[in-house]
Design brief:
about 260 residues; Aminopeptidase; 2 domains; about 30% strand; GNAT_dom
Length: about 260
């Protein structure tokens, strides 16, 4: 893999040429940023910026004014190669709070190994309707606990909206252990892009280390290949990064969400 070329393609296709994640959200370009503004269920934030030491503070302040005016918490998705070098410190000074850093990892979809056999009694179920979206919420809650209850509910609503409004752009599955959802994962497809995004995959603690996450990666990779996508892209947590590394994913950069709450 030509890492520099893939990073350039990622920056252009996923960040600068981003498209809205739902019909209720809009991509706005101008004033030094590419941002998405949507409903409370949508992701709201800055995807890409073109600022320097002389313009950064004014651009940051304008984004705060914009999202505060519409009553939205929003995220500035800062990548390790973004400029200026002190952009993170400027965001903190403007009242943003840093969340855990993630690693942007990419693999060629058709080169991933087949996934492991699922544990006995576990199966993957396609999410296609409201009942499936509810299972996604429950799987997220099982993985991350009651402290993430609001995000679990928001995830279910977002997946249901995507299934209703842009069904060709999302594939979602839930790993079921009997009648209990223990892992939820989805792939999002961007028409015209080389990258399919893999999201979710958090697994209930007692089911970790049994190959469920790897099986969901392989399942989504097969679908991406069938649809003609060249790369898989993941914003990996510290838990999933070693697994993806062993599967053959390459690190492009890191990304840190800086969140501002009005």
């Amino acid at each position: 893999m030509d890492q520099a070329a893939v990073l350039a393609a990622y920056d252009r296709q996923i960040r600068r040429e981003a498209r809205s994640e739902s019909p209720g959200a809009r991509i706005e370009r101008g004033g030094g940023v590419v941002r998405q503004t949507g409903s409370e269920q949508d992701w709201n934030g800055v995807l890409w910026s073109d600022v320097d030491a002389t313009t950064a503070d004014a651009v940051i302040a304008e984004q705060v004014r914009h999202f505060t005016a519409v009553g939205r918490e929003f995220e500035w998705k800062l990548h390790s190669y973004d400029r200026p070098d002190d952009l993170a410190q400027r965001l903190l000074a403007a009242g943003f709070v840093a969340e855990p850093t993630e690693t942007v990892m990419v693999a060629e979809a058709d080169r991933l190994p087949d996934g492991p056999q699922l544990p006995d009694g576990v199966r993957l179920v396609d999410v296609t309707d409201e009942a499936g979206a509810r299972l996604m919420s429950q799987a997220h809650l099982a993985a991350f606990g009651a402290a993430d209850a609001a995000l679990s509910e928001q995830l279910g609503k977002r997946v249901l909206a995507q299934l209703a409004e842009t069904p060709d752009d999302i594939v979602a599955v839930v790993a079921m252990a009997g009648d209990r959802p223990v892992c939820g994962a989805r792939a999002e497809f961007r028409p015209g892009a080389d990258f399919a995004g893999l999201w979710g995959g958090g697994t209930a603690p007692e089911w970790r280390g049994k190959g469920i996450y790897r099986a969901t990666v392989a399942h989504r990779a097969r679908i991406a290949v069938e649809r003609g996508y060249r790369y898989l892209q993941v914003d990996a947590s510290e838990d999933s990064r070693p697994i993806l590394d062993r599967l053959g994913f390459t690190t492009l950069c890191t990304t840190t969400p800086y969140v501002h709450t009005p």
